[in-house]
Amino acid sequence: MKVHWKNNRSIRPDRLLDRLNRSKSIRNDGRVSYDSFDYYDVFSAIFSMLVFPKSVSSEIPIDHIVSKAIDRAALEGNITKEILIKKINNVVEEELSTKEIRYHLLTSVSITGDLPFKQIVFEGVRIRFVDRYPKKYSCRNEVIIENNKNFSPDHPGYRKVILTVKSKSYRGASTKALDALDAIRSIFCMFANAEKELLGDQDSPVNRVRLGQVHTLHKENGSSATQGMVWYEPNFKQQRPFNIKGGDVYNKNFRFIIDGINNQPYGRDVKNALVRYVRALDDPNHNSALVQIWGALEALVSPYESNCDRISRRCSFLFDDQEYHEQIIEHLREYRNSNVHAGDQSDRAKMYCFQAQYYFKQMIYFLLRNVFEFSCLAEAFEFLDMPSSRTSLEAKEKILKNVFSFKRYRDMVPGS
């Protein structure tokens, strides 16, 4: 699948590129220069008009792709949307043809105790939980301090993690590694996070298993793979590590979710929603976290539709007292909308996050158990959209019987 322009009539990239053409100039050394303000505006706007396949955006920095393509198009003459998209895909093809390199991302998580495993391979990423880093990574602390003297390389009680991954670029490696770790961390949080909090720190995130402050990327020989650049958690707040007790139980629960992600036909959709869930509840701003976890729930329950009413309908279908739960979910939706559109804030936002987490978890369990052997999410949604009253279901059953009879499928009449 190639990079392409969004199919939206209101998007007109040529209007932007015309401005870029007027502001560009070719220097004596053959390089292209632009009016800085025009280039900044056009460059940032172009990203919103393009669709990058995940296989591209996860491997190559898209700002590098677009920048390189614009320069190539400018050197050849007038930049048009047709020429630019061709150049973008040429750059993508070149970058993807390069050889993969093995990288190691080092970080930590706020977890201790009886871990269900010491290492796991998930989506091609080898994740190892260790007590200390090997000596070859001794440059890590120096790299961290050089970036910011206020950064802390270690946190008491946190378990160190080494993630090994192959990628065509260091940015691709960091993206793959952190996505895989957040997917695993989301499973820890599914079982570690509190269901409610009557008394607690209102400034602390909901998640009890969080990342360490700084992540570093290394080559095979242990040296920095990024010329000293690091990734860090902007909202980092050191916390008491979550102590796992009963590794066998955790291992069983982990296996259930991992096997579901690997074996169910919609496993990747579930994994992506889990990553959004755990990143949402890392946020100490609970009003913001509620908006984000609602987005995770929406991605799980109504990913291809704009009808938000179906979210409360589908989630509440899982419960005997459907009307009660539908009202709770509707209250969450109303608060989310008032926060997004009117900027409303509430001191009860953390409580709302716990409520949203509860319905998110119930839907994850339902989809991964897949008792009814759904072949895709659309089939699961069709089930969840059914009426719940016996009278309504019997009426539908009667109509189906009549349709089978009308079509002369007499040997296949349901319920006969």
Structure characteristics:
single chain; 416 residues; two-stranded antiparallel sheet; globular
Beta content comes to 5-15%
Order of helices and strands: EHEEHEHHHEEEEHEHEEEHHHHHHHH
* Radius of gyration using CA atoms only: 25 Å
In DSSP terms, counting alpha (H) and pi (I) runs of 4 or more, how many helices? 15
Major sheet: 6 strands, antiparallel
Contiguous low-pLDDT stretches (5 residues minimum) are none
What is the average per-residue confidence, as pLDDT, rounded to a whole number? Answer: 90
Write down the oligomeric state. single chain
Shape: globular
Identify the strand order in the major beta sheet: 7-8-9-5-10-11
Which percent range fits the helix content?
Answer: 40-55%
Find the structural class using helix and strand composition: alpha+beta
Number of strands: 12
Task: Give the N-to-C terminal Cα separation.
Answer: 47 Å
Describe the structure in your own words.
With 416 residues, the protein is α+β, with helices and mostly antiparallel strands. Helix content is 51%, strand content 12%. It contains 15 helices and twelve strands. The protein has helices at residues 13-23, 36-47, 54-57, 62-76, 81-96, 139-147, 170-192, 247-263, 267-280, 286-301, 309-316, 322-342, 349-369, 377-384, 390-406, and strands spanning 4-5, 25-26, 32-33, 50-51, 101-109, 111-113, 119-122, 125-130, 159-167, 214-218, 231-232, 242-244. It has a six-stranded antiparallel sheet, sandwiched between helices. The chain has a two-stranded antiparallel ribbon with strand order 1-4. Helix 1 packs antiparallel against helix 2 (36-47) and helix 9 runs antiparallel to helix 10 (286-301). The longest helix has 23 residues, at 170-192. The protein is globular. The mean pLDDT is 90.
